[in-house]
Amino acid sequence: MQQNKCNIQNITNDTINGVESSSPYLKTLTSKSKHLFKIVGLTSAIFMASVTNLSALDVMVGINIPSKDISIADKDAIDDIATFSSKFKVAPSVGLRTEPNYISDGQFGYFFQFDGATFDIDTQEINDEDDPKDIGTSISGSSLLAVPTIFYHFNKSQTAWSQKFGIGVGAGYLDLRGDFIVTDNTHPEYNQKIDVDTKGWGMAVGVFFEVSNDKHLFIIQNFAPTISDDKYEYQQHNIDMMYRYKFTIDNFPFRLN
Description:
Elements: H1 13-20, H2 24-51, E1 57-74, E2 80-85, E3 91-98, E4 101-102, E5 108-121, E6 138-154, E7 162-181, E8 193-213, E9 216-228, E10 232-249
Antiparallel strand pairs: 1-2, 1-3, 1-10, 3-5, 4-5, 5-6, 6-7, 7-8, 8-9, 9-10
């Protein structure tokens, strides 16, 4: 299991894994919970879109220093059987989000965020070694996120620098191609190379921290879409450190509420 990641689905990994191995009933509950989380993510995305004011849209462009990670597990299991990890590198950044809506004019608010990324990762983690290595495997593809996000706005009354911290659960899309080697030495397919060619919608969860001054945004975020096929579950982490400049499109041609 990867350490030091914002992986909401695996927060209780050690506890669940220890009990689940002796209880098929709890394993079934864990599988059902994953499907429930996906339904909640898709439902929240649709609901938040329906109540969000789309009369204004923020277009954000800038520079990103991303790290793209991919974790692979058996479909109804907890532990990862393969993990890809890329190093931070400079890339352009483009994103969309609706203008923030505040709850009762307070410091809590929400917006709808749209983001996308492409990736090509050719370094895979081997057992407990710290640095991922090129072992002849790679996964490339793209991800899309449509995530309603609830935030708390610190120093909202200040005209200069202010901060936002938020979390989101919504819909995510992954398109993955490539192959991986199973590195979990307790797995029956240990050391076998598995081909990957899958795509689809699933749940996306995330967290972000933003420092802003008018149209200048400095953002650290991790948004993670998850999909599964008949056999495996794939989760991609978009770990971003970004500077973005915000352009606001007023009088957007339609609104949903």
